Amino acid sequence: MWEIFSSPENWASLLTLTVLEIVLGVDNLIFLSILASRLPIEKRRVGRRLGLGAALITRLGLLASVAWIVTLSQPVFTVLDLAISWRDIILGVGGLFLIAKSTLEVHHSVEGGDEFGPKESAKVPGLWSVVAQIAVIDIIFSLDTVMTAVGMSDHFPIMAFAVIAAVCVMLFAAEPLSRFVDAHPTVKMLALSFLILIGVSLIADALHFHIPKAYLYFAVAFSIGVESLNLWATKRLNAKRAAAKRTVE
Protein backbone atom coordinates (compact mmCIF):
# COMPACT_ATOMS: atom_id res chain seq x y z
CA MET A 1 0.00 0.00 0.00
CA TRP A 2 2.76 2.43 0.97
CA GLU A 3 4.43 2.32 -2.45
CA ILE A 4 1.74 4.61 -3.86
CA PHE A 5 3.23 7.44 -1.77
CA SER A 6 6.53 7.20 -3.66
CA SER A 7 4.97 9.07 -6.58
CA PRO A 8 5.00 12.92 -6.55
CA GLU A 9 1.69 12.87 -8.43
CA ASN A 10 0.04 10.92 -5.64
CA TRP A 11 1.40 13.36 -3.04
CA ALA A 12 0.00 16.25 -5.07
CA SER A 13 -3.33 14.43 -5.28
CA LEU A 14 -3.30 13.85 -1.50
CA LEU A 15 -2.58 17.53 -0.78
CA THR A 16 -5.26 18.73 -3.21
CA LEU A 17 -7.88 16.36 -1.83
CA THR A 18 -7.05 17.31 1.77
CA VAL A 19 -7.46 21.03 1.04
CA LEU A 20 -10.68 20.31 -0.86
CA GLU A 21 -12.10 18.29 2.05
CA ILE A 22 -11.22 21.06 4.52
CA VAL A 23 -12.71 23.86 2.41
CA LEU A 24 -15.89 21.95 1.61
CA GLY A 25 -16.15 20.88 5.25
CA VAL A 26 -16.56 24.46 6.49
CA ASP A 27 -20.35 24.37 6.15
CA ASN A 28 -20.47 21.07 8.02
CA LEU A 29 -18.25 22.51 10.76
CA ILE A 30 -20.56 25.50 11.16
CA PHE A 31 -23.59 23.20 11.40
CA LEU A 32 -21.77 21.05 13.96
CA SER A 33 -20.80 24.08 16.08
CA ILE A 34 -24.34 25.46 16.14
CA LEU A 35 -25.91 22.09 16.98
CA ALA A 36 -23.36 21.43 19.74
CA SER A 37 -24.10 24.84 21.28
CA ARG A 38 -27.61 23.56 22.15
CA LEU A 39 -26.11 20.88 24.41
CA PRO A 40 -25.32 21.45 28.10
CA ILE A 41 -21.88 23.07 28.48
CA GLU A 42 -20.28 19.93 29.96
CA LYS A 43 -21.40 17.84 26.96
CA ARG A 44 -20.47 20.19 24.12
CA ARG A 45 -16.87 19.04 23.66
CA VAL A 46 -17.94 15.38 23.72
CA GLY A 47 -20.75 16.17 21.27
CA ARG A 48 -18.36 17.86 18.84
CA ARG A 49 -15.87 15.01 18.99
CA LEU A 50 -18.51 12.31 18.61
CA GLY A 51 -20.06 14.26 15.73
CA LEU A 52 -16.74 14.51 13.92
CA GLY A 53 -16.06 10.84 14.65
CA ALA A 54 -19.41 9.94 13.10
CA ALA A 55 -18.59 12.21 10.15
CA LEU A 56 -15.26 10.41 9.64
CA ILE A 57 -16.94 6.99 9.69
CA THR A 58 -19.67 8.04 7.22
CA ARG A 59 -17.14 9.59 4.81
CA LEU A 60 -14.87 6.55 4.87
CA GLY A 61 -17.94 4.37 4.39
CA LEU A 62 -18.97 6.40 1.36
CA LEU A 63 -15.46 6.17 -0.09
CA ALA A 64 -15.46 2.40 0.41
CA SER A 65 -18.81 2.24 -1.44
CA VAL A 66 -17.57 4.00 -4.57
CA ALA A 67 -19.31 1.63 -6.99
CA TRP A 68 -22.63 2.15 -5.18
CA ILE A 69 -22.15 5.94 -5.04
CA VAL A 70 -21.71 6.10 -8.82
CA THR A 71 -25.05 4.32 -9.36
CA LEU A 72 -26.83 7.06 -7.39
CA SER A 73 -26.46 9.35 -10.41
CA GLN A 74 -28.47 7.02 -12.63
CA PRO A 75 -32.09 8.23 -13.24
CA VAL A 76 -34.77 6.22 -11.44
CA PHE A 77 -37.83 8.09 -12.74
CA THR A 78 -38.79 11.16 -14.76
CA VAL A 79 -41.06 14.09 -13.83
CA LEU A 80 -41.93 16.65 -16.54
CA ASP A 81 -38.85 15.69 -18.59
CA LEU A 82 -36.68 16.00 -15.47
CA ALA A 83 -34.72 12.80 -14.81
CA ILE A 84 -34.59 12.20 -11.06
CA SER A 85 -31.84 10.06 -9.51
CA TRP A 86 -31.31 8.90 -5.94
CA ARG A 87 -28.59 11.54 -5.65
CA ASP A 88 -31.15 14.23 -6.53
CA ILE A 89 -33.59 12.85 -3.96
CA ILE A 90 -30.93 12.75 -1.23
CA LEU A 91 -29.75 16.29 -2.02
CA GLY A 92 -33.33 17.60 -2.11
CA VAL A 93 -34.29 16.00 1.21
CA GLY A 94 -31.01 17.16 2.73
CA GLY A 95 -31.59 20.71 1.53
CA LEU A 96 -35.08 20.76 3.02
CA PHE A 97 -33.74 19.37 6.30
CA LEU A 98 -30.97 21.99 6.41
CA ILE A 99 -33.38 24.86 5.70
CA ALA A 100 -35.87 23.60 8.31
CA LYS A 101 -33.21 23.02 10.97
CA SER A 102 -31.49 26.37 10.37
CA THR A 103 -34.83 28.21 10.39
CA LEU A 104 -35.72 26.59 13.72
CA GLU A 105 -32.32 27.63 15.09
CA VAL A 106 -32.95 31.21 13.93
CA HIS A 107 -36.34 31.13 15.65
CA HIS A 108 -34.74 29.77 18.81
CA SER A 109 -32.07 32.49 18.76
CA VAL A 110 -34.64 35.25 18.27
CA GLU A 111 -37.46 34.01 20.51
CA GLY A 112 -35.54 31.96 23.05
CA GLY A 113 -32.59 34.24 23.54
CA ASP A 114 -34.35 36.78 25.75
CA GLU A 115 -32.33 37.08 28.96
CA PHE A 116 -35.55 37.81 30.88
CA GLY A 117 -37.41 34.85 29.38
CA PRO A 118 -37.84 31.42 30.94
CA LYS A 119 -34.73 29.68 29.62
CA GLU A 120 -35.48 26.65 31.74
CA SER A 121 -38.42 25.82 29.47
CA ALA A 122 -36.22 25.56 26.39
CA LYS A 123 -35.94 21.97 25.28
CA VAL A 124 -32.34 20.70 25.36
CA PRO A 125 -31.60 18.04 22.71
CA GLY A 126 -29.97 14.76 23.73
CA LEU A 127 -26.31 14.06 23.01
CA TRP A 128 -26.97 11.16 20.64
CA SER A 129 -29.73 13.11 18.88
CA VAL A 130 -27.20 15.83 18.03
CA VAL A 131 -24.58 13.28 16.93
CA ALA A 132 -27.15 11.54 14.69
CA GLN A 133 -28.15 14.84 13.06
CA ILE A 134 -24.48 15.68 12.42
CA ALA A 135 -23.90 12.26 10.85
CA VAL A 136 -26.98 12.56 8.61
CA ILE A 137 -26.15 16.03 7.33
CA ASP A 138 -22.51 15.00 6.78
CA ILE A 139 -23.70 12.32 4.36
CA ILE A 140 -25.50 15.02 2.36
CA PHE A 141 -22.47 17.32 2.37
CA SER A 142 -20.08 14.47 1.53
CA LEU A 143 -21.79 13.09 -1.59
CA ASP A 144 -20.27 15.57 -4.03
CA THR A 145 -16.85 15.66 -2.34
CA VAL A 146 -16.66 11.86 -2.44
CA MET A 147 -17.52 11.87 -6.15
CA THR A 148 -14.87 14.56 -6.70
CA ALA A 149 -12.30 12.52 -4.75
CA VAL A 150 -13.05 9.45 -6.86
CA GLY A 151 -12.51 11.52 -9.99
CA MET A 152 -9.17 12.86 -8.76
CA SER A 153 -7.58 9.67 -7.45
CA ASP A 154 -7.75 5.95 -8.17
CA HIS A 155 -6.25 4.96 -4.81
CA PHE A 156 -8.47 4.41 -1.79
CA PRO A 157 -5.62 4.98 0.75
CA ILE A 158 -4.98 8.47 -0.66
CA MET A 159 -8.66 9.37 -0.45
CA ALA A 160 -8.90 7.92 3.07
CA PHE A 161 -5.81 9.79 4.30
CA ALA A 162 -7.20 13.04 2.86
CA VAL A 163 -10.50 12.54 4.70
CA ILE A 164 -8.76 11.65 7.99
CA ALA A 165 -6.43 14.68 7.73
CA ALA A 166 -9.37 17.01 7.01
CA VAL A 167 -11.38 15.68 9.97
CA CYS A 168 -8.33 16.11 12.26
CA VAL A 169 -8.06 19.76 11.18
CA MET A 170 -11.80 20.19 11.80
CA LEU A 171 -11.38 18.59 15.24
CA PHE A 172 -8.88 21.28 16.27
CA ALA A 173 -10.92 24.08 14.66
CA ALA A 174 -14.31 23.05 16.08
CA GLU A 175 -13.85 24.31 19.64
CA PRO A 176 -12.43 27.79 18.79
CA LEU A 177 -15.12 28.24 16.15
CA SER A 178 -17.85 27.19 18.59
CA ARG A 179 -16.59 29.63 21.23
CA PHE A 180 -16.45 32.45 18.69
CA VAL A 181 -19.96 31.74 17.37
CA ASP A 182 -21.38 31.49 20.90
CA ALA A 183 -19.73 34.77 21.93
CA HIS A 184 -21.07 36.72 18.93
CA PRO A 185 -24.83 36.29 18.28
CA THR A 186 -24.64 38.25 15.01
CA VAL A 187 -22.01 35.82 13.70
CA LYS A 188 -24.25 32.91 14.67
CA MET A 189 -27.13 34.47 12.73
CA LEU A 190 -24.81 34.95 9.75
CA ALA A 191 -23.73 31.31 9.96
CA LEU A 192 -27.35 30.15 10.07
CA SER A 193 -28.13 32.30 7.02
CA PHE A 194 -25.20 30.63 5.26
CA LEU A 195 -26.62 27.19 6.08
CA ILE A 196 -30.03 28.22 4.70
CA LEU A 197 -28.24 29.37 1.54
CA ILE A 198 -26.48 25.99 1.33
CA GLY A 199 -29.86 24.26 1.73
CA VAL A 200 -31.30 26.29 -1.15
CA SER A 201 -28.30 25.38 -3.32
CA LEU A 202 -28.77 21.67 -2.51
CA ILE A 203 -32.42 21.82 -3.58
CA ALA A 204 -31.45 23.72 -6.74
CA ASP A 205 -28.80 21.09 -7.47
CA ALA A 206 -31.40 18.35 -6.99
CA LEU A 207 -33.55 20.09 -9.62
CA HIS A 208 -30.52 20.29 -11.96
CA PHE A 209 -30.05 24.05 -11.46
CA HIS A 210 -26.41 24.07 -10.42
CA ILE A 211 -25.22 27.05 -8.37
CA PRO A 212 -21.39 27.25 -8.37
CA LYS A 213 -20.03 26.93 -4.83
CA ALA A 214 -17.61 29.76 -5.59
CA TYR A 215 -20.56 32.18 -5.69
CA LEU A 216 -21.79 30.97 -2.31
CA TYR A 217 -18.38 31.17 -0.69
CA PHE A 218 -17.78 34.66 -2.13
CA ALA A 219 -21.10 35.87 -0.69
CA VAL A 220 -20.23 34.37 2.69
CA ALA A 221 -16.66 35.74 2.63
CA PHE A 222 -18.01 39.23 1.83
CA SER A 223 -20.56 38.99 4.65
CA ILE A 224 -17.89 37.80 7.08
CA GLY A 225 -15.68 40.71 6.04
CA VAL A 226 -18.46 43.22 6.71
CA GLU A 227 -19.30 41.58 10.05
CA SER A 228 -15.61 41.59 11.03
CA LEU A 229 -15.48 45.35 10.42
CA ASN A 230 -18.66 45.73 12.46
CA LEU A 231 -17.20 43.74 15.38
CA TRP A 232 -13.95 45.71 15.20
CA ALA A 233 -15.81 49.04 15.17
CA THR A 234 -18.00 47.94 18.10
CA LYS A 235 -14.93 46.87 20.08
CA ARG A 236 -13.22 50.23 19.48
CA LEU A 237 -16.39 52.13 20.42
CA ASN A 238 -16.76 50.17 23.66
CA ALA A 239 -13.10 50.80 24.48
CA LYS A 240 -13.55 54.55 23.93
CA ARG A 241 -16.67 54.60 26.10
CA ALA A 242 -14.86 52.72 28.88
CA ALA A 243 -11.92 55.15 28.68
CA ALA A 244 -14.27 58.16 28.78
CA LYS A 245 -16.10 56.69 31.78
CA ARG A 246 -12.82 56.21 33.66
CA THR A 247 -11.83 59.80 32.85
CA VAL A 248 -15.10 61.16 34.24
CA GLU A 249 -14.74 59.12 37.42
From TrEMBL:
It holds the Pfam family TerC. It is found in: Membrane. It is a multi-pass membrane protein. GO terms for cellular component: membrane. It comes from the Bacteria. The keyword Cell cycle does not apply. InterPro entries: Integral_membrane_TerC. The chain crosses the membrane at residues 12-37, 49-70, 76-99, 127-150, 156-177, 189-209, 215-233. Keywords: Membrane, Transmembrane, Transmembrane helix. The keyword Plastid does not apply. Its main location: membrane. Belongs to the TerC family. This is TerC family protein. It comes from Parvibaculum sedimenti.
